[in-house]
Specification:
Strand 2 and strand 3 form a beta hairpin. This protein has about 140 residues and is α+β, with helices and mostly antiparallel strands. The chain has helices spanning about 5-15, 30-35, 40-55, 125-140, and strands spanning about 20-25, 60-65, 70-75, 95-100, 105-110, 120. The protein has four helices and six strands, in the order H-E-H-H-E-E-E-E-E-H.
Length: about 140
């Protein structure tokens, strides 16, 4: 798994944390998955994750490093990382708006009307998979 793929997985895992949770990047992976990764990929992931956090300062706070020298973080607005299906969107969803905001970021507005609109930014393959999962679930239901 590349560092970018690991970053995508880490971002998905943030949706399972609660506001106020303090964590290190390693906590976002199962032990065997983390240990299988090359040390250089893990170090690159740490840099990528810190850059991601800097872009989301209103959602994740950078704390001090722990006694092992690992960067600690605190989740502030964890609900923003939850899959759309857990954000109280209606099951019968449809894409209401889809536009490129800037290079590498696509904005998607989903809902049956403006009253249940859920918004998300597609920045990675993992985000696209989350969107596809929500839309697929709408078709099944």
């Amino acid at each position: 798994m590349t560092a970018q793929e690991m970053l995508d997985q880490a971002i998905i895992e943030l949706g399972n944390l609660k506001d106020g949770d303090i964590f290190i990047v390693k906590d976002l992976f199962k032990g065997h998955l983390w240990n299988k990764q090359d040390r250089s990929e893990r170090l690159t992931l740490g840099t990528l994750f810190l850059n991601f956090v800097k872009q989301n300062q209103d959602k994740i706070e950078v704390l001090n490093k722990n006694s092992s020298g690992q960067q600690e973080y605190k989740l502030i607005k964890g609900w923003t990382f939850k899959p759309l299906s857990q954000k109280n969107c209606f099951t019968k969803t449809r894409v209401m708006e889809l536009k490129i905001v800037e290079k590498g970021i696509i904005y998607v507005g989903i809902g049956t009307s403006g009253f249940d609109l859920c918004e998300m930014a597609l920045r990675s393959g993992a985000d696209i998979e989350k969107l596809a999962s929500v839309l697929n679930q709408s078709l099944v239901d």
